[in-house]
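User: Here's a protein and a ligand (copper (II) ion). What would the complex look like?
Assistant: Let me lay out the input and then the predicted complex.
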Amino acid sequence: MLEILDSTLREGEQTPYVNFTLEEKVQIARLLDEVGVEMIEAGDPSVSPNVAKAVERIASLGLKAEIVAHSMATKSGIDRAKACGADRVAIFYATSQIHLEAKLHRTPEEAIEIIREHVAYARSLGLKVRYTPEDATRTDFEFLVRACNAAIEAGADRISFADTIGIMQPHLIAERVRALRARLLPCKIDLHCHNDYGLALANAMAGIRAGADCIHVTVNGLGERTGIPDLAETIVAFHNLEGIQKYNLAPLMELSAYVERVSGFFLAPNKPITGQNAFTHKSGVHTNGVLKDPRTYEPFDPALLGRQRKIVIDKYTGKSAVAARLEEYGVQVSPAELEVIVSRIKLLGDQRKQIFDSDIIDIAEQVTGRRLDIIPHNLEAVIMLEVESQVYTSLVVRRLRALTSVRNVYEITGDFDVSAFVEVEDIMALNNLIEEIRTIPGVKRTETRMILKKYNGT
Ligand code: HCA
Ligand code: CU
């Protein structure tokens, strides 16, 4: 049966420019425990005093998950893992020729001795041990088997088959896992797949099918370079496609949003499962289908994640979607009026990047000749930002423009340096967005003005 180790607090904190506070780590660990992951890799206590403190705090929370400390193959590192109260230490020591020669300056025989000695030392302290042959997928297979079996003989009960630079493919990892199973002494096999070619989750799933036990993930797929499989994608893929339904899906969206906020590492809108567009439909053909029966264009009901489907209105939109949107606002129009409204929306859509609900209501007013006293559901606001004097404004602008709710950005004169026109679904979303903007490095202060009514130029 599949097991999951979440490494947001270790691998995830190795994401360029991402660092969590102690309180944030505790909150992430608690949410992960609600999800029900079997193991939480809480950090490598040798990295810094605060990382050690975080591992210690998390180990003391009494969570259901096993708490793992990561460590290099050094006695002092293993001592620190023990001192933090971790259940298990994950000792990594590279086995590929390139790592042994260029990085570690050790012969293969020396490496085997170091692995054996440190695994045995950790066992003597009463720790459970996972051994990770770093860069395993580029390691000579016979040597990999020897190194892993040396670790297992010395007391490791888990081996992490680390695809450190993400070079596996599903058919290859399946072959390797089968071969490892046949040659290794009894142990559990973890899969640590990096996502350099976008194949991390596919590789991990293939490895599980071939007989591995556990997948390493992070929230939002954080990690060195392009990261490792995303927790929510992994859980939902196994839940829906493989029928493994032992995890609690309810906290996944909150966990993703929380990590997004405190990491300052924002999700691409088209990210599967948790991305903003995962259940948003656009073209007339698609929206018409979805309005008749969502199964036409949805792999599963967004309610599984507590999410809602969304239909975008713009020049691609057909009549059924516009009618449905107007109905949401309690506006009924005749078929002839609807026809004209849709054609005007298409005209406007050809001129502009985005159409807002306020535009749709404006057009409906013009076409029907009725005054519609309606306030659009979504909120629009202008957020003004003051930027630290030593920071290039253009850097802040680039980060701002990557946020999906941000429509237009202006560099301005006066008390503030930048103003952004934003559109969000509700006040909560506005609040989150403002917090997100405040985490952008260089943003000194923000001030927000809500838009009450908008007059568009033609
Ligand atoms: C690294 C180490 C590691 C370890 C994986 C593991 C890797 O290179 O930073 O312990 O399972 O990718 O090899 O993250
Ligand atoms: Cu890694």
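Summary: The mean pLDDT is 94.
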